[in-house]
């Protein structure tokens, strides 16, 4: 599969374009805003490619990868010769239903159709198209150009062959796919992420600690283990008897804390605003773009450590 169409040229769509171009694929990029490609998307993608090259991530040069990307004026032109389509339009059910009807009408019968949706089940917009067995969700983490995880989830009509082919294709492109065996709201990452953030909102709103301390608990505590191990392996290594020892010794405490956690905590706008005030002081909205660049470089440094590269 050498030709890819990226439909939607926002942050996620541009990140995907960088991924596929670095993997040697020809990329056609489309956005509903006719001025977005030249004015915003292509400069953004070039900057991402240059940053990846500067950070020593290997692969082609920024110029080589960028030369593989071009814009298309219509969905039909973008997907006409594509082997794989990655849609990253806004999270609106009617928009995605209409968009995939158009994509499916113009893509070849053997083309894999994937959506980056993070909030909508694929079965709500991918099953009424022609040949729905070729369509699935491929939910990335923003920015996909820097974070390799992608969650694959079928719709109930997606064929096993499509899921396997998407897994191989994305793996070959440098991503790290995981597969959900059935649909669930939020997929995997967001269910874990939002559960943690919801309990963090509860702890701050009820006065147990500050928002700053919550972030420090993560960056100076949990994240130092989870960045290389994950929660299951972390507890396996934390008990003398491994995971069984953890369950025997700390299982009752884990269940107690789970029952007392308030992941459904009904926080108020005023409580959320107090957290916003700290965030605005620590990182003003006008400086978010610069902070995102720092975040992305820290992500790449972490990935190098995960791969055993301990250079400065």
Question: Would you give an account of this structure?
Answer:
- The protein is globular and about 55 Å long.
- It has 312 residues and is an alpha/beta fold.
- It is built from 12 helices and 8 strands.
- Helix 1 (11-22) links the parallel strand 1 (3-7) and strand 2 (26-30).
- The chain folds into 2 domains: 3-180, 3-Layer(aba) Sandwich (Rossmann fold), CATH 3.40.50; 188-307, N-(1-d-carboxylethyl)-l-norvaline Dehydrogenase, domain 2, CATH 1.10.1040.10.
- Helix 1 (11-22) packs across helix 2 and helix 9 crosses helix 10 (242-260).
- The two termini are 36 Å apart.
Q: Would you spell out the secondary-structure blueprint of this structure?
A:
Layout: E1 3-7, H1 11-22, E2 26-30, H2 36-54, H3 62-66, E3 69-71, H4 75-79, E4 84-87, H5 93-106, E5 112-115, E6 135-140, E7 149-153, H6 160-172, E8 176-180, H7 189-205, H8 211-226, H9 231-238, H10 242-260, H11 269-282, H12 288-306
Parallel strand pairs: 1-2, 1-4, 2-3, 4-5, 5-6, 7-8
Antiparallel strand pairs: 6-7
Helix pairs in contact: 1-2, 9-10
Which structural traits does this protein have?
Rossmann fold; N-(1-d-carboxylethyl)-l-norvaline Dehydrogenase, domain 2; 2 domains; 8-stranded mixed sheet; 12 helices; 6-PGluconate_DH-like_C_sf; 6PGD_dom2; L-gulonate 3-dehydrogenase activity
CATH superfamily heading of the largest domain: NAD(P)-binding Rossmann-like Domain
Overall form: globular
Q: For the report, how would you describe the main beta sheet?
A: 8 strands, mixed
Which CATH first-tier class of the largest domain would you pick? Alpha Beta
- For the record, the CATH architecture of the largest domain stands as 3-Layer(aba) Sandwich
Could you name the ranges where pLDDT drops below 50 across 5 or more consecutive residues?
none
Compute the number of helices: 12
Strand order of the largest sheet: 3-2-1-4-5-6-7-8
Structural class: alpha/beta
How is the CATH topology of the largest domain named? Answer: Rossmann fold
Strand content: 5-15%
Order of helices and strands: EHEHHEHEHEEEHEHHHHHH
- What value does the average pLDDT take? 94
Q: Measured on Cα atoms, how large is the radius of gyration?
A: 21 Å
| Number of DSSP-assigned strands | 8
Number of domains: 2
* Alpha-carbon distance between the two ends: 36 Å
Classify the helix fraction into a percent range. 40-55%
């Amino acid at each position: 599969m050498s030709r890819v169409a990226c439909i939607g040229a926002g942050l996620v769509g541009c990140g995907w374009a960088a991924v596929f171009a670095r993997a040697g694929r020809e990329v056609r990029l489309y956005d509903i805003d006719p001025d977005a490609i030249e004015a915003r998307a292509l400069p953004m993608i070039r900057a991402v490619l240059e940053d990846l090259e500067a950070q020593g991530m290997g692969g082609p040069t920024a110029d080589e990868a960028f030369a593989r990307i071009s814009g298309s004026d219509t969905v039909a032109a973008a997907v006409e010769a594509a082997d794989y389509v990655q849609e990253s339009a806004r999270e609106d059910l009617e928009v995605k239903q209409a968009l995939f009807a158009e994509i499916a009408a113009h893509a070849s019968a053997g083309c894999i159709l994937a959506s980056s949706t993070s909030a909508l089940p694929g079965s709500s917009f991918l099953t009424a198209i022609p040949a729905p067995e070729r369509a699935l969700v491929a939910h990335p983490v923003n920015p996909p150009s820097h974070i390799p995880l992608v969650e694959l989830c079928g719709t109930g009509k997606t064929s096993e062959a499509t899921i396997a082919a998407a897994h191989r294709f994305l793996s070959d492109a440098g991503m790290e796919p995981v597969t959900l065996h059935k649909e669930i709201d939020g997929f995997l990452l967001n269910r874990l992420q939002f559960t943690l953030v919801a309990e963090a909102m509860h702890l701050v709103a009820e006065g147990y600690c500050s928002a700053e301390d919550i972030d420090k608990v993560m960056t100076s505590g949990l994240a130092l283990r989870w960045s290389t191990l994950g929660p299951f392996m972390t507890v396996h290594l934390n008990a003398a008897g491994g995971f069984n020892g953890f369950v025997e010794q700390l299982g009752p405490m884990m269940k107690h804390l789970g029952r007392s956690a308030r992941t459904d905590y009904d926080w108020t706008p005023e409580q959320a605003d107090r957290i916003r005030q700290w965030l605005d002081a620590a990182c003003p909205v006008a400086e978010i773009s610069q902070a995102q660049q720092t975040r992305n470089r820290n992500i790449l440094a972490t990935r190098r450590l995960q791969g055993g590269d301990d250079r400065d």
